[in-house]
Amino acid sequence: MASNISQSKSDLTKRDFRAMILILFKLQRTRVEIYEYLQEHYPDLVLSLSTVERWYREIIHGNFVLEDAPRSGRPNISHNDDNVNEMLDLTTKDPHITYVQLDYETE
């Protein structure tokens, strides 16, 4: 079973870690114990103690929602495959292209 866990570590999302924090909270673990557990079992994880503490506080205040809250504003569209490929093509054709030129070419 341990091999299944190690294979799926890269597939874990923020939602998964929030769920683990919620479960460990319900098992009456402290913030530090939860952080140490996550660091022990997921050493490559970039999750700070302050993040664990923030999610822990949310749980204490009754927020058991595992998903990110919706945010207002324009959606981030800069990291889709089409945009990445377009930028790659432009920079491959002209490695000295400026940000202003890239902005103009991709409008």
From TrEMBL:
<dbReference type="GO" id="GO:0015074">
    <property type="term" value="P:DNA integration"/>
</dbReference>
<dbReference type="GO" id="GO:0003690">
    <property type="term" value="F:double-stranded DNA binding"/>
</dbReference>
<dbReference type="GO" id="GO:0046975">
    <property type="term" value="F:histone H3K36 methyltransferase activity"/>
</dbReference>
<dbReference type="GO" id="GO:0000014">
    <property type="term" value="F:single-stranded DNA endodeoxyribonuclease activity"/>
</dbReference>
<dbReference type="GO" id="GO:0000793">
    <property type="term" value="C:condensed chromosome"/>
</dbReference>
<dbReference type="GO" id="GO:0006303">
    <property type="term" value="P:double-strand break repair via nonhomologous end joining"/>
</dbReference>
<dbReference type="InterPro" id="IPR052709">
    <property type="entry name" value="Transposase-MT_Hybrid"/>
</dbReference>
<dbReference type="GO" id="GO:0035861">
    <property type="term" value="C:site of double-strand break"/>
</dbReference>
<dbReference type="GO" id="GO:0044774">
    <property type="term" value="P:mitotic DNA integrity checkpoint signaling"/>
</dbReference>
<dbReference type="InterPro" id="IPR041426">
    <property type="entry name" value="Mos1_HTH"/>
</dbReference>
<protein>
    <recommendedName>
        <fullName>Mos1 transposase HTH domain-containing protein</fullName>
    </recommendedName>
</protein>
<dbReference type="Pfam" id="PF17906">
    <property type="entry name" value="HTH_48"/>
</dbReference>
<dbReference type="GO" id="GO:0003697">
    <property type="term" value="F:single-stranded DNA binding"/>
</dbReference>
<dbReference type="GO" id="GO:0044547">
    <property type="term" value="F:DNA topoisomerase binding"/>
</dbReference>
<feature type="domain" description="Mos1 transposase HTH">
    <location>
        <begin position="14"/>
        <end position="63"/>
    </location>
</feature>
<dbReference type="GO" id="GO:0000729">
    <property type="term" value="P:DNA double-strand break processing"/>
</dbReference>
<dbReference type="GO" id="GO:0005634">
    <property type="term" value="C:nucleus"/>
</dbReference>
<dbReference type="GO" id="GO:0031297">
    <property type="term" value="P:replication fork processing"/>
</dbReference>
<dbReference type="GO" id="GO:0042800">
    <property type="term" value="F:histone H3K4 methyltransferase activity"/>
</dbReference>
